[in-house]
Amino acid sequence: MSVKQDQRRFREIVKGKIKENFKKYITHEEMIGKREQEYVKIPIPRISIPTFKYGPKQQGGVGQGQGKPGDAVQGDPQNGEPGQGQAGEGEGQHLLEVEVSYDELAEILGGQLELPRIEPKGNKSIESMKTKYTGLRPIGPESLRNFKASFKEALKRQIISKTYDPDKPIIVPIKKDMRYRSFKTVPQPTSNAVVFYIMDVSGSMGEEQKEIVRLESFWLHTWIRKHYKGLQTRFIIHDASAQEVDEETFFRTSESGGTLISSAYNLVKKTIDEEYPIDQWNIYVFHFSDGDNWSSEDTRYCIKLLREDLLGKVNLFGYGQVESRYGSGQFMKDLEKSMGDEQNFVMSRIANRDQIVDSIKTFLQKGN
Amino acid sequence: MKGLPPELVAEQIRVEKMARGYGLDFFQTVFEMITYDQMSEFAAQGGFPSRYPHWRFGMEYEKLSKSYEYGLSKIYEMVINTDPCYAYLMEGNMFVDQKLVMAHVYGHCDFFKNNQWFSRTDRKMMDTMANHGTRIRRYMDRYGYDVVEDFIDKCLSIENLIDRHSPYFSGSTSNQNSSRNQEPVKQEVTPLKNTGAGYMDKYINPPEYLEKQREEIKKTETTEKKVQTERDVLHYLIKNSPLEDWQQDILSIIRVESYYFAPQGMTKIMNEGWASYWHTTMMTNGLLTDGEVIDYADHHSGTTAMAPTGFNPYKIGIELFRNIEERWNKGQFGREWEQCEDYTQRKNWDKKLGLGRQKIFEVRRNYNDVMFIDEFLTEDFCIQNKMFVYKYNQRTNEYVIDTRNFAEVKKKLLFQLTNFGQPIIEVMDGNYENKGELLLRHLYEGVDLQPDYMKETMKNVQEIWKRPVNLMTIMDNQEKIFRSDGSEFKEITLKDLPKSSQG
């Protein structure tokens, strides 16, 4: 099968392009906006074969439909042709985005940053069953009835049996016309790793800081998920108090209150204790903040929590201090003083986008 | 790949008989049943099961198979222009779809066999393609995969620079016949025949005279090379570039394949229109059973559907054929018809000539898309089908309807169809400024080239030509020459054009 070889070759070229521009991809948001279950869509610069061609914007074209001169044409008329019929010339040179699986992306990331592979602790993985819809069948529960397919069957039957009257188009489906969505159950490996992302959402964390956190957590996530069958994520935001949110809220929320970091650490501790028995879960925590804490007393409490509680439970605790327009806070310095020698504790300072790459490397180079 | 199940074989016989009954004339047609994955694979390779290795086919395959898996598009059929004609049906399609596809395929096969633009295509292209693959694989073994692939990239970059209307291209593909060996016969100075021994030579063939003649021929030869332009840029490069033998062979292969696919591009609207015309005709005249009407209608409307403001060449094709048939049946052509300006008279015009079928068969034999649109796209048709010209509005960053004026619509459509809507580039000079540089010229038709693509393409030409390459074109209303010497890309403005000649 020669085309499979061509496809492999194509994918190699794509990966080459990504490697070439890797720094750019890490520090720009264009790719992580397009996440799917298994793939990321990456805009690739010019993988088409250059030819002499007209610039499209000046060119225009012919269309069909309603409207007066001056009215906007809906959609992109350049893509007006439906995708059916003859194979034509196999040209198709306008590929703007390619799909790259997280696995491949992680591979590239690991290779570019020379990251050691993560060694999971314990190897429990439990399988569960998941339902997947696959097609249509004539029996099933009412809740899964497909109306369009059922009416189509009824219409067919009525035409064959000559009971369909075009002047009085009434269609009455009977039992044997009914079509139901069919499903089958497939085994699904249960996640055996969890990542907590904690972010300081107090007023001093601006848009740019959050964008850095978003990019960095995307790459951390890509790398970690490669090493586990599945991966759960929990998002915790905090100012003076902490709460768990969904991903969307995580990156959107902006508060003006003060900062009590211990509130977040406590919430993580509580969640782990209640939901993630440490003999079954690999646990990762990444905390991003600009380093301003309410009081040195709270900082001392944080250090105590880390030392006595969290670090004994997690594979890795990463603290990333993002520089804000008010500069960089005291928290990191305090941690430096008292946390220096812990195996699974890593700190990194991220002054701007360009340092995301180094920061990821710092976080992940221990391989736990 | 497998043959058809018995019920489809029976159906094929029925469809084929019906098609012949309507007067369709085709090579033997072989149907194969393939999976959707194979369908994507073959489609990615231009319909052929075997091509030379290149990542572009892989990219196309990835796109097609993804878009099928996501339910965005589905290829129902594929036909290749060969003798016998091969056509693929997709496993798991509904019976009614398979019938429709078969009827559609016979339309294509008839078109391939009878349309004059296909008359010189290589009907054994299946073997030729496989042979090209073998040759290129051999080069890859010998010179390295990357080296050969890289060269193919450059060739593909200029694969569209052929003379698409060249009526003399035979489609011949074997190595022996490649154009390097078809150098024009050298002009020779032949001494006059002299019956006797050499003693009269001094008077009959004076040596000084012969020498003078030789010099003159030499002079015309060099200047001739300078003046002659060549539309078939690939041919020129194959003949005159300092290429290795294997590179020359690959460029010839690319050229041969371009010529093979050219007629399909030139007759896309007609070919699809013709096939759609026949599948509808046959389906609604006996092929369909009552129970299949809904699925047929569903599928058919899907194929010929249009986005609210899109343009579907298949739809225009079939509608035009129907329109021609109706006009020739009713006698709505000729001087009398053209000159009639009475609305009711025109509306009720029916001379019951019944020439429609005959006319559309004639059209399918002698026309290509440009001629088809030029001759048969009437103002009435244009209005009925709500056609318009759109343009890009820089200010609002969107496409807007420009005009519904018939002449404009037709002009735009013809422009899009001429040379596939691709710019025409020709070789002006292979020894530009007497420095062995290549001079190309873009025959400007009112639309600028896309600059970044132009730059990259010129770089590729330069790597084939090995000396600097110049391109004469008009950009931003100015006549310019661009020059690429491999490391540097330069722009030379010739002169400001007067406003009036900007069109």
List the helices and strands and how they pair.
The complex is a heterodimer of chains A (368) and B (503).
Chain A: H1 2-20, H2 22-27, E1 39-43, H3 56-59, E2 61-64, E3 97-101, H4 102-113, E4 127-137, H5 147-160, E5 180-189, E6 193-200, H6 207-226, E7 232-238, E8 242-245, H7 247-252, H8 261-275, E9 282-289, H9 296-310, E10 316-322, H10 331-339, E11 345-350, H11 356-364
Helix pairs in contact in A: 4-6, 6-11, 8-9
Chain B: H1 6-21, E1 29-34, H2 36-44, H3 55-69, E2 77-80, E3 85-90, H4 95-114, H5 125-143, H6 145-157, H7 201-204, H8 207-227, H9 233-240, H10 245-266, H11 268-287, H12 293-304, H13 313-330, H14 334-339, H15 343-347, H16 356-366, H17 369-376, H18 379-384, E4 387-393, E5 398-403, H19 406-417, E6 425-432, E7 437-442, H20 451-465, E8 469-475, E9 478-484, E10 489-496
Parallel strand pairs in B: 1-3, 7-8
Antiparallel strand pairs in B: 2-3, 4-5, 6-7, 8-9, 9-10
Helix pairs in contact in B: 1-4, 2-3, 4-11, 5-6, 5-10, 6-10, 9-10, 11-13, 13-16, 17-19
